[in-house]
Write a structure and sequence with these properties.
One of its GO terms (molecular function) is metal ion binding. By secondary structure, the chain is an alpha/beta fold. 33% of the residues lie in helices and 23% in strands. The structure holds zinc ion. The site of zinc ion (ZN) has 5 residues, from loops.
Length: 402
């Protein structure tokens, strides 16, 4: 029997591929298929399942629960999101919701890495643990949320503030990480704070043939210059220290410019939008004060309007003070995994747990795999997927016995 036939007939891979074929895709994801599929999984695993709607009827949160031997202890949450980002099928060599498997065992689908893999690996690990008769001290909740790819505003973000979430009594969470093209496995313990804001500069309007004082263009030019200085300083920090990754520095990008009415008229208002991810070492109040000082120096009359201004969130401790970290680490050590602690470059639902003071780690066990999240031809190799189930078996056993 060839490896290919093994992969085709493997039950864990069949379930993974079935889940991948459900097109829960933005911009208007329909979760009905996921719900039906997950209800079947819960039944097969003999786990109770609950569905919550923290925002509206289109955005469910599914939670399966495996009660522990000491259910009064804070529980372990294994979280994943059901939604996936849009596809451009013309750029794919396989249908993006086909879950085709090629001769090398690569399974192609949107969500193969981000992050239907992890959700199904949790279930695969729990299936194996249940079959072996294992029981653990802590209750384990396996959650499947909506809307992560849009920032979780209709999913995890409101969910963590509901009575239903509080009743889950979560003490530790696992959520998504990233693939790694090398042997290493990145583990994410923190995220930067996303700030997105508009500088709306008002100034003297008039004819384009004059040199009017206090124009919107001059003001905006001054402020954009200051933002670009900050950007350059962070580029240098990265260049000068090979130990740093992009998650360690503040990223600054000018993302939108607008304004003007006619090409020969000095406009009354011009607007610039920035996407900034504040590094963990940035004093938020100081940064805000700096921006207001630049506005004053530019001559005033500039409104600062926030689209996002996320608070600083304490990183999850990765030392003896956090027994869940110690349990996680002993599992990956026993398996001989080469893990590397990192700060996540983007945002994940982990931040909503950390904001409540709940320790959370981001981990997707996909090494020797190109990072293809949100990319065309997203794939995960079958053996990497199956190895991930083995890895989660050990991790779940350890963290649920803390
Ligand atoms: Zn994701």
């Amino acid at each position: 029997m060839s490896a290919n036939t093994d992969w085709e007939s493997n039950e864990e891979l069949q379930l993974f591929r079935e889940y991948l074929r459900i097109p829960s895709v933005h911009p208007h994801p329909n979760y009905d298929g996921c719900l039906e599929f997950l209800k079947r999984q819960a039944k097969q695993l003999e786990l109770p399942l609950a569905v919550y709607y923290p925002s509206n009827a289109d955005n469910p949160v599914v939670v399966m629960t495996w009660i522990g031997l000491e259910p009064e202890l804070p529980a372990v949450l294994l979280n994943s999101h059901m939604d996936v980002v849009p596809v451009f099928p013309e750029n794919w060599t396989h249908p993006p919701f086909g879950a085709d498997i090629d001769k090398q065992g690569r399974i192609y689908a949107r969500g193969a890495q981000d992050m239907k893999c992890v959700g199904m690996q949790y279930l695969g690990a729990i299936r194996a643990l249940k079959q072996s008769g294992s029981r653990f001290r802590r209750t384990i909740h396996i959650s499947f949320v909506a809307d992560e790819e849009m920032g979780g505003a209709l999913g995890m973000r409101p969910f963590v503030h509901t009575d239903e979430f509080r009743a889950l009594n979560v003490g530790f969470g696992l959520d998504e990480g990233l693939a790694s093209p090398t042997d290493e496995f990145p583990v994410f313990y923190a995220e930067r704070s996303v700030w997105r804001f508009y500088f709306k500069a008002s100034g003297t309007a008039g004819h384009g043939s004059l040199l009017l004082p206090g124009t919107a263009g001059e003001k905006l030019n001054y402020i954009v210059g200051k933002m670009m200085e900050l950007r350059r300083s962070q580029v240098l920090r990265l260049e000068n220290n090979p130990e740093l990754t992009i998650g360690d520095v503040t990223t600054v990008n000018l993302t939108r410019l607008s304004g003007g009415v006619q090409s020969n008229v000095v406009p009354p208002q011009l607007t610039a939008c920035f996407d900034v991810r504040l590094a963990l070492d940035v004093d938020h109040r100081q940064f805000e004060a700096d921006m207001h000082r630049w506005i004053e120096e530019a001559g005033g009359g500039v409104e600062l309007e926030y689209e996002h201004q996320r608070p600083r969130v304490e990183p999850t401790a990765t030392d003896e003070s956090n027994p869940f970290w110690m349990a996680f680490k002993s599992a990956t050590d026993e398996l001989g995994l080469d893990i590397k602690l990192q700060i996540f470059t983007g945002g994940t639902d982990s931040r909503y747990l950390r904001e409540l003071g709940i320790p959370a780690l981001g981990f997707s066990p996909m090494n020797n795999t190109p990072v293809l999240l949100h990319d065309h031809d997203e794939f995960l190799q079958a053996d990497v997927y199956l190895r991930g189930i083995e890895i989660f078996k050990k991790i779940i056993k350890n963290v649920a016995n803390v």
